[in-house]
Amino acid sequence: MKIFPVYYFPSVSWFAAALQAETIVLEKWQYYRKQHFFNRMEIKTPDKVLRLSIPVKKAGEHTPLALRQISQDGTWRPDHWKSIESALRSSPYFEFFEDRIAQFYEEKWDSLFDYNLAILTMVRDSLHLPITWTISEKYLPSEHYEADYREAFDPKDGFMPEWFQPKSYLQVFGDVFSPDLSILDLMCNKGPETERILRDSFRGSEKL
Question: Rounded to the nearest 5°, which phi and psi values hold at 144?
Answer without folding.
Answer: -80, -5
